[in-house]
Design goal:
two-stranded parallel sheet, 43% helix, Arc Repressor Mutant, subunit A, 4% strand, single chain, 5 helices, mainly alpha, 2 strands, DNA-binding, 102 residues
DNA sequence: TGTTTGACGGACA
DNA sequence: CTGTCCGCCAAAC
């Protein structure tokens, strides 16, 4: 079907919504959990299309290097620090905050 | 229809 | 640590 990608979008929303407060996940991690490895970029695009009013914790998604990829890093960093996550020099310790799923 | 772009990821120097 | 390169993929040109 042509909506296989539409389903992935809903999967991504559900997964991101499940990231615990105080934890982070990577784009690749979300893509894998959504059953779509190789689609990490798609995850980024989906999050970029969220309305500013969304309640989804999109700020808990960072890249595999532990860095913020969001074009507006300031906003994301504020949100992360607001829930106790330490962001040092634009970096976050995955070792310490990554959502353990498998 | 070919090329570029982007909130990615991993390997490597 | 930083920068480069390449694989991947859908959307926008």
């Amino acid at each position: 079907m042509a909506d296989s990608q539409e389903n992935i979008k809903h999967q991504v929303w559900q997964i991101v919504n499940a990231i615990p407060q105080g934890s982070v996940a990577t784009y690749g991690q979300v893509a894998r959990l959504a059953g779509a490895p190789q689609h990490s970029r798609l995850v980024g695009r989906i999050l970029s299309q969220l309305p500013r009013s969304t309640r989804l914790p999109w700020h808990r998604v960072i890249n595999s290097q532990g860095k913020i990829s969001n074009p507006n890093p300031k906003r994301q960093q504020d949100r992360l620090e607001q829930e106790g996550i330490v962001v040092l020099r634009g970096r976050i310790s995955l070792k310490q905050y990554q959502w353990q799923t498998d």
